[in-house]
Fold:
Amino acid sequence: MGSARYPSLYQINTRVWLTELSQKLGRPATLDDIPDADLDRLARMGFDWIWLLSVWQTGPAAQQVSRSNLEWRREFHETLPDLREEDIAGSGFAITGYTVHSNLGGDAALARLRERLKKRGLRLMLDFVPNHMGLGHPWVEDHPEYFVGGAEIDLARAPKNYIWVKRTKGDLLLAHGRDPYFPGWPDTLQLNYANPETQEAMIGELVKIAGQCDGVRCDMAMLVLPEVFERTWGQRAPLFWPKATRRVRERVPGFTFMAEVYWDLEWTLLQQGFDYAYDKRLYDRLREHHARPVREHLRAGLDYQDKLARFLENHDEPRAAATLSSEAHRAAAVITFLSPGLRFFHQGQFEGRRKRISPHLVRAPQEPIDQNLAQFYEKLLAVLRRQTLRDGRWQLLECSPGWEGNWTHDCFLVFAWQGGNGERLVVAVNYAANQSQCHVRLPFAGKKWRLEDQLTAAGYDWNGDDLTARGLFLDMTPWQASVFSLTKGDLT
Structure:
């Protein structure tokens, strides 16, 4: 994926972006109106991938569900106290066709934007929703057999999971898309993966999408696994992903697949053709504020870790600035984004936005920028642009007590990066609400070292003999995070 072993991705809510542009321009904006200056800025920040959320065609039936669902509306009002009907466009995941939404300028506008991104070395990622389609999809008329049907007894047993769909050829009872643990999504219809014809049709959609972008993020990718589909619908489905990923790559070599995946099924999907899988485990462990489970997670082999998409927030999760204190947020960011894997950032994260924006909405609330957090992320992104962090060798380091009986060494996460250019970096985080001390042995030979923190500009001199014997002594304040650059130097 890209030239870097460890690339960076930036997720943008396309409809929100264009709403803001429309307000500036005084007219409806399309993808053609996205300024080159914005794309230049994203390239300068060091991103390899731009994921444009919600570009596909959606329809009025799903939009009406979004506008009339009282539970959803309560959430929309919390986000936008001045909520207007036009703010609710319907979910970007209730898709009625894999063509670019007419309001965004259609397929031609996306093709022009992709070309502009390409000139700046930026790759384009788009959504693929394998599990379901939106209400009003043409297949309801033309290919109802592609969907999971129901009987009156199903509707009586689970009224939230089924809907009578009007058709010119006769009304049908169809299932809403869902996962096995929750009621159905009322703006969607469940695709029937037990039907080989459905799978062929969805591979056809994927092949079409692959001509319009460089990669897809596959929504709830595990729902179409045979065992999960059977648990949800009582029917065994043939394997889909190995066949789908292979067929797409036969047409478009190097095409990238990223899985949104939970329930410890990450490795399963990586084995079935995905390049990357969401690392929700790391995210959850960081939110629990304990270093040891995070450290245990980072002991996995690099054949696995290299394929994990590491994030602190996305459109599904609450904002990091709303769930973590500013100190813990910075510490968690250093761990998340300076670990191996794909670095996955979300629009609004750098500015410290606190309100999550539902994929049903096309407008964001006005929020002040957290200048301290913005400055921190500026420094962190500068560190991530170093070749050592993009292509270097990562190693988790062991911490020992600062002195006998000192338990606080268990609060640390320390790892080293070595670049092909000889650069050496040590990342040290005290992931705890208490002051902590430890010794850590570094894997670098040498007598004398100069350590300079790339996040604070603080500098230290250390004797290399001590570094290899007892190891570097760290004494860090609560949630302190440092990225030390090591250079050989003379002690004065």
